[in-house]
Amino acid sequence: MRLAICAGPATTGKTAVLRHVARKLLSLGHKVAFLKIDVQYAEEDEQLAAELGIPTRKVYSGELCPDHCSVMVLGDALAWAAAAGADVLLVETAGLCLRCAPYVDGGLGLIVMEATSGMNLPLKVGPMLSLADLAVVTKIDRVSQAEREVFRARIGEVAPRVKVREVNALHGIGIDPIVEEVLAAPLAFEGMQLRGNPPVGTCTICVGKKDIGWQSHFGVVRPLDNQTFYRGE
Fold first, then answer.
1. Which of 61, 87, 109, 154 could bond 66 through an S-S bridge, CB–CB 3.0 to 4.6 Å?
2. Residue 193 lies in a domain
């Protein structure tokens, strides 16, 4: 089975891109499964199941970072997709944490960004871009050619080895090169690992402590006028 994990900021067109990718894969005779990971609400899985007749699943990350949740459930998801007869699994994750990336060795890492988000967006999304294999730029029809070139240059500054593809996700223009990348990805294998190192952090806020001020917390803390440091045993 081939695995493609798609991340990116909200409203960039991730589902629109994957919808066209799935439709093209189906036309080529492939069997596609789709997994949607979001925080508290999503209906894209139901839409794709109705439109394309493919097996879909949905997971809400709840108190987990969506990218962390993706890593947690990916093993089960591969087993589910295989049992459903799929030879391609498309995973869409909310990608809200800009310190993390959900990509794994043994799969295609795909980030979707919209050109209308500002020229400096590639500088702000961290390892979601720098650890990706492919950067897909959407809404290119809404910016000038000069803005498109600056956006591509910003991507190159952050991730010079990442391939860039511009698409019109509304009409499916420019999708074929993305499909080719999905089919050229290595086969998923047992024992795959997260690509890159996850951020190291132990946080009392994340486990429910509400007090304001670093003096009330333990683990990795950060004062206003100092660097991050560890406090506690």
1. 61
2. no
Q: What is the mean pLDDT of each run of 10 residues along the chain (233 residues)?
A: 93 94 98 94 94 96 81 92 97 81 92 93 93 96 93 96 94 95 92 81 81 88 80 75
Q: How far apart are the first and last CA of the chain?
A: 44
pLDDT given for residue 233 in this prediction: 65
The answer to the question of residue 58 being in a domain is yes
Reduced to 3 states (helix: H, G, I; strand: E, B; else coil), residue 231 is strand
CA-to-CA distance for 53 and 22, rounded, in angstroms?
A: 11
144: domain CATH number? 3.40.50.300
pTM over 0.85: yes
Q: How big, in percent rounded to 5, are the helix, strand and coil portions of the chain? A: 35, 20, 45
Same structural domain, 95 and 42: yes
Same domain, 164 and 224: no
Kindly provide the b/e burial profile for residues 171-186, where b requires at least 16 CB atoms within 10 angstroms of the residue's own CB: ebebbeebbebbbebe
Q: Is 196 left (phi over 0), alpha (psi -120 to 50) or beta?
A: left
Give the separation between CA 180 and CA 21, rounded to whole angstroms: 10
